[in-house]
Target: RuvB-like helicase
Amino acid sequence: MKIEEVQSTTKKQRIATHTHIKGLGLEATGKAIPLAAGFVGQVAVGDVIYIEANSGAVKRVGRSDAFATEFDLEAEEYVPLPKGEVHKKKEIVQDVTLHDLDAANARPQGGQDILSLMGQMMKPRKTEITDKLRQEINKVVNRYIEEGVAELVPGVLFIDEVHMLDMECFSYLNRALESSLSPIVIFATNRGICTVRGTDMSSPHGIPVDLLDRLVIIRTETYGPAEMIQILAIRAQVEEISIDEESLAYLGEIGQQASLRHAVQLLSPGSVVAKMNGREGICKADLEEVCSLYLNAKSSAKLLQEQQDRYIS
Model:
């Protein structure tokens, strides 16, 4: 997308045309140049850019929200398309994390003399981030927030398979959650009553009771056949796999008998089998062939139990 500024006696207006900007990773024909050619980024149709009037630099802001889909797996930043007159002033907002501040202040800063430069070269680049350093950074951040210079946007920390953490990790999380700068923490697990790692204590979901008491537990329910078919159809669309309704219904039955994860994992080998048979889309016969090749967790456990005398224990 190319943005031109048109000067007028009354106002400035913006004219956008669907052409590509030279020097941003595109050839004259509009074809993308490989990244190995030395381009940091590329601009394509749907990108939102801005041009600095003084330097003429062209910078990419993000993708237009008109190109966003409901089930987009890309980590793109979608921004609204600018409207109205050209902005004469620009407010720069810099997003930094607490870890960025910790890492920046952990690096040793020396002088410009020969001894200082030699010392910096001999010291390792990575320096340990101590608790004292974190406390000093927290004081500075809190002061900036009180003065209105900075705004705290809580992040989200998602920990899957939380029952794999040991007591030391849970103790650290319990103490970190008391801080005013702590993020929103989401735990996920599929365990019931089990032992907390590193102890002989049994607890719901493998989480200590004192930490569990501070959590809000979200009630979840198993997926029904129609919901499984809908999820499988979305997954097939994201992976650009063609599959008919009969095959989706068959995968939904497999998901009910085994698990939804196993049914999703059968899409990729089913697509390979379909292409080997000369078809672009997956049919039920392809999935039946794939099911004869791969076992799910329940079938595997049942087979091991029936034939345990044939395995080394």
